[in-house]
Amino acid sequence: MNLSKLLLGTSLSLATFIGLSAKAIASNPHNFPETYISQQPNCKNPQAQTELNICSGLEYQRADKQLNQVYNQVHAQFSPTLRQHLILAQRAWISFRDANCKFAASEFEGGTMAPLIANTCLEDLTKKRISELNSYLQNQIPLPTSRNYQTVDRKLNQVYQNTMASLSASRQSQLKIAQRAWIIFRDTNSKFESSLSNGERQLSLIRMTEQRTKDLVDLSQQSR
Asked: Where are the alpha helices (H) located in the chain, listed in sequence order?
């Protein structure tokens, strides 16, 4: 399997790369009845839960298409070595995205709101990744608030432990998976950024740790 082609092909979305067709996400993201899809839900003012679920799936698909466009632009401007680093970082991000959004939706597992929570999470992370990729295009990697990795890492661990303590055993297991996936993404993406002319691994680690801490706080608040 040629990962580069999978990630770069304009006819393939990142959703396709992980085994989900864009059509499945766009027109029928959660296997809703085709008769309902054909009615074209009012996504400007959705009311019913099914309508909210479908519209959120469509919003995620739009973000995913934009992500592919930006990714292709970033990939095209780098040397073969940097492209390989970028591919590894993007593959790690996909794994993190999926694990994190599975955890986010797990609170409503089996319920009618689960697709909405999952799609909203997918869209949010995708937009954040778009912003990150755009910063590479503009040669302006955002700087962290702090300059001390140990400080932000301690804060992340504290927030993570507090979050774990509030969860059921099954959700703790899912958060552990998501956090491990994030660590891999953090490391591979920081390695990629450190290879850029204006990149620095330590600053990348700090910035990503700050963002992960904020995201965990948001997830915790949403669960209350």
From this structure: 3-8, 14-17, 22-27, 34-37, 49-76, 80-106, 114-137, 149-165, 169-194, 201-223
- Mean pLDDT along residues 28-32: 44
Q: Which of 90, 162, 167 is nearest to 125 (CA)?
A: 90
Burial (CB < 10 A; 0-12, 13-18, 19+), residue 208, is buried
Q: What is the pTM of this model?
A: 0.82
**The pLDDT of residue 98:** 97
Sign of CA dihedral 208, 213, 218, 219: positive
Cα–chain center distance at 27: 21
State both tokens at 165. 């303590």
Mean pLDDT on 32-42: 55
The confidence score (pLDDT) of residue 28 equals 40
